[in-house]
Design a protein that fits this description.
It comes from Pseudomonas mangiferae. This is Cysteine hydrolase. The protein is of the alpha/beta class. The chain has one domain: Rossmann fold, CATH 3.40.50. Helices cover about 35% and strands about 20% of the residues. It has 6 helices and 9 strands, in the order βααββαβαββββαβα. The strands form 2 sheets. Strands 1, 2, 3, 4, 5, 6 and 9 form a 7-stranded parallel β-sheet that branches. It has a two-stranded antiparallel ribbon with strand order 7-8. β7 and β8 form a beta hairpin. α4 runs parallel beside α5.
Length: about 180
Protein backbone atom coordinates (compact mmCIF):
# COMPACT_ATOMS: atom_id res chain seq x y z
CA UNK A 1 0.00 0.00 0.00
CA UNK A 2 1.31 3.48 -0.82
CA UNK A 3 2.27 5.93 1.90
CA UNK A 4 -0.59 7.22 4.04
CA UNK A 5 -2.06 10.50 2.81
CA UNK A 6 -2.65 13.56 4.96
CA UNK A 7 -6.19 14.92 4.98
CA UNK A 8 -6.42 18.70 4.53
CA UNK A 9 -9.76 20.16 5.62
CA UNK A 10 -10.08 23.66 4.20
CA UNK A 11 -12.12 26.48 5.80
CA UNK A 12 -14.76 24.42 7.60
CA UNK A 13 -15.73 27.42 9.65
CA UNK A 14 -19.08 28.59 10.96
CA UNK A 15 -19.52 31.38 8.41
CA UNK A 16 -19.42 28.75 5.65
CA UNK A 17 -22.43 27.04 7.24
CA UNK A 18 -24.52 30.20 7.52
CA UNK A 19 -27.40 30.60 5.09
CA UNK A 20 -26.56 32.63 1.99
CA UNK A 21 -28.79 34.49 -0.44
CA UNK A 22 -27.46 32.38 -3.34
CA UNK A 23 -27.80 28.61 -3.81
CA UNK A 24 -24.95 26.20 -3.15
CA UNK A 25 -24.17 22.77 -4.56
CA UNK A 26 -23.41 19.42 -2.91
CA UNK A 27 -25.97 19.55 -0.06
CA UNK A 28 -24.41 16.34 1.33
CA UNK A 29 -20.86 17.73 1.40
CA UNK A 30 -20.79 17.96 5.19
CA UNK A 31 -21.76 14.28 5.49
CA UNK A 32 -18.94 13.35 3.10
CA UNK A 33 -16.50 15.59 4.97
CA UNK A 34 -17.54 13.98 8.27
CA UNK A 35 -16.97 10.51 6.77
CA UNK A 36 -13.47 11.47 5.66
CA UNK A 37 -12.66 12.99 9.05
CA UNK A 38 -13.99 9.94 10.93
CA UNK A 39 -11.95 7.58 8.73
CA UNK A 40 -8.73 9.55 9.20
CA UNK A 41 -9.27 9.78 12.95
CA UNK A 42 -10.06 6.05 13.25
CA UNK A 43 -6.84 5.20 11.39
CA UNK A 44 -4.77 7.73 13.34
CA UNK A 45 -3.64 9.25 10.04
CA UNK A 46 -2.31 12.80 9.70
CA UNK A 47 -4.78 15.59 9.20
CA UNK A 48 -4.60 19.34 9.05
CA UNK A 49 -7.45 21.74 9.78
CA UNK A 50 -6.92 24.89 7.74
CA UNK A 51 -8.64 28.02 9.00
CA UNK A 52 -9.02 31.25 7.07
CA UNK A 53 -8.41 34.36 9.17
CA UNK A 54 -9.25 37.53 7.27
CA UNK A 55 -7.34 40.76 7.52
CA UNK A 56 -10.62 42.60 6.85
CA UNK A 57 -12.26 43.42 10.21
CA UNK A 58 -15.71 43.38 8.56
CA UNK A 59 -15.31 39.79 7.33
CA UNK A 60 -17.05 36.85 8.97
CA UNK A 61 -13.57 35.27 8.96
CA UNK A 62 -12.04 38.10 11.05
CA UNK A 63 -10.37 37.15 14.33
CA UNK A 64 -12.86 37.07 17.18
CA UNK A 65 -15.90 36.83 14.89
CA UNK A 66 -18.18 33.84 15.60
CA UNK A 67 -17.95 32.87 11.92
CA UNK A 68 -14.19 32.38 12.15
CA UNK A 69 -14.59 29.47 14.59
CA UNK A 70 -14.66 25.91 13.31
CA UNK A 71 -18.04 24.30 12.78
CA UNK A 72 -18.84 22.01 15.72
CA UNK A 73 -18.77 18.87 13.55
CA UNK A 74 -15.25 19.71 12.36
CA UNK A 75 -13.72 21.02 15.57
CA UNK A 76 -10.08 19.91 15.73
CA UNK A 77 -9.02 17.58 18.51
CA UNK A 78 -6.15 18.76 20.71
CA UNK A 79 -3.51 16.63 18.97
CA UNK A 80 -4.60 17.62 15.43
CA UNK A 81 -2.71 20.26 13.48
CA UNK A 82 -4.39 23.62 12.87
CA UNK A 83 -2.88 26.09 10.41
CA UNK A 84 -4.18 29.56 9.64
CA UNK A 85 -4.08 31.40 6.35
CA UNK A 86 -4.92 34.94 5.25
CA UNK A 87 -5.21 34.26 1.52
CA UNK A 88 -7.06 31.49 -0.34
CA UNK A 89 -3.97 29.30 -0.89
CA UNK A 90 -3.11 27.32 2.26
CA UNK A 91 0.44 26.80 0.94
CA UNK A 92 1.18 30.54 0.52
CA UNK A 93 2.80 31.06 3.93
CA UNK A 94 5.03 28.01 3.66
CA UNK A 95 3.94 26.56 7.03
CA UNK A 96 1.77 23.84 5.48
CA UNK A 97 4.46 22.70 3.09
CA UNK A 98 7.03 22.60 5.91
CA UNK A 99 4.67 20.64 8.17
CA UNK A 100 4.07 18.04 5.45
CA UNK A 101 7.70 17.77 4.29
CA UNK A 102 9.09 17.35 7.82
CA UNK A 103 6.77 14.36 8.23
CA UNK A 104 7.58 12.91 4.82
CA UNK A 105 3.99 13.31 3.64
CA UNK A 106 3.69 13.61 -0.12
CA UNK A 107 0.14 12.31 -0.65
CA UNK A 108 -2.82 14.55 0.16
CA UNK A 109 -6.58 14.39 0.21
CA UNK A 110 -7.93 17.94 0.04
CA UNK A 111 -11.56 18.73 0.85
CA UNK A 112 -13.60 21.72 2.02
CA UNK A 113 -14.70 25.08 0.68
CA UNK A 114 -15.02 27.13 -1.47
CA UNK A 115 -14.49 24.95 -4.57
CA UNK A 116 -13.18 27.67 -6.91
CA UNK A 117 -11.44 29.66 -4.22
CA UNK A 118 -9.49 28.25 -1.27
CA UNK A 119 -9.98 24.62 -2.26
CA UNK A 120 -8.82 25.13 -5.85
CA UNK A 121 -5.95 27.45 -4.87
CA UNK A 122 -4.66 24.97 -2.30
CA UNK A 123 -4.97 21.96 -4.63
CA UNK A 124 -3.21 23.84 -7.45
CA UNK A 125 -0.28 24.67 -5.19
CA UNK A 126 -0.16 21.10 -3.92
CA UNK A 127 0.24 19.86 -7.49
CA UNK A 128 2.74 22.56 -8.37
CA UNK A 129 4.84 21.65 -5.33
CA UNK A 130 4.96 17.99 -6.32
CA UNK A 131 2.43 16.56 -3.89
CA UNK A 132 0.17 13.76 -5.12
CA UNK A 133 -3.27 15.17 -4.42
CA UNK A 134 -6.79 13.83 -4.52
CA UNK A 135 -9.90 15.99 -4.28
CA UNK A 136 -13.17 14.26 -3.34
CA UNK A 137 -15.47 16.54 -5.30
CA UNK A 138 -18.58 15.68 -3.32
CA UNK A 139 -16.81 16.75 -0.10
CA UNK A 140 -16.45 20.30 -1.46
CA UNK A 141 -19.01 22.97 -2.23
CA UNK A 142 -19.48 26.46 -3.54
CA UNK A 143 -22.16 29.01 -4.34
CA UNK A 144 -23.81 30.40 -7.45
CA UNK A 145 -22.09 33.49 -8.84
CA UNK A 146 -21.72 35.62 -11.93
CA UNK A 147 -18.90 34.90 -14.34
CA UNK A 148 -16.46 37.49 -15.67
CA UNK A 149 -18.95 38.62 -18.33
CA UNK A 150 -21.75 39.00 -15.77
CA UNK A 151 -23.65 35.86 -16.74
CA UNK A 152 -25.23 34.00 -13.82
CA UNK A 153 -23.68 30.58 -13.17
CA UNK A 154 -25.19 27.93 -10.95
CA UNK A 155 -23.22 26.56 -8.01
CA UNK A 156 -22.95 23.28 -9.91
CA UNK A 157 -21.41 25.03 -12.91
CA UNK A 158 -18.93 26.94 -10.76
CA UNK A 159 -17.98 23.77 -8.87
CA UNK A 160 -17.70 21.64 -12.00
CA UNK A 161 -15.37 24.18 -13.64
CA UNK A 162 -13.17 24.29 -10.54
CA UNK A 163 -12.95 20.48 -10.55
CA UNK A 164 -12.20 20.49 -14.29
CA UNK A 165 -9.42 23.00 -13.66
CA UNK A 166 -7.84 20.63 -11.13
CA UNK A 167 -8.40 17.16 -12.56
CA UNK A 168 -5.45 15.61 -14.28
CA UNK A 169 -3.09 18.53 -13.95
CA UNK A 170 -2.99 19.38 -10.25
CA UNK A 171 -4.96 16.58 -8.62
CA UNK A 172 -7.07 13.53 -9.19
CA UNK A 173 -10.73 14.46 -8.71
CA UNK A 174 -12.96 11.62 -7.56
CA UNK A 175 -15.77 10.82 -5.11
CA UNK A 176 -15.52 10.46 -1.36
CA UNK A 177 -16.46 6.78 -1.74
CA UNK A 178 -13.54 6.27 -4.15
CA UNK A 179 -11.15 7.97 -1.74
CA UNK A 180 -12.35 5.88 1.20
CA UNK A 181 -12.18 2.66 -0.88
CA UNK A 182 -8.66 3.49 -2.01
CA UNK A 183 -7.49 4.19 1.53
CA UNK A 184 -9.45 1.40 3.26
Amino acid sequence: MPATPALLLVDLQRCMAEPRPVPRNNPDAEAHLAALLAHWRAQGWPLVHIRHISRDPASGFAPGQPGAAFQAAFEPQLHEQVLEKNVPDAFASGALERWLRVRGLDRLVIAGVISENSLEATARSAGNLGFIAQVPEDACFTFAKRDFRGRPRSAEEVHDMAMANLHGEYAEVLSTRAVLDRWA
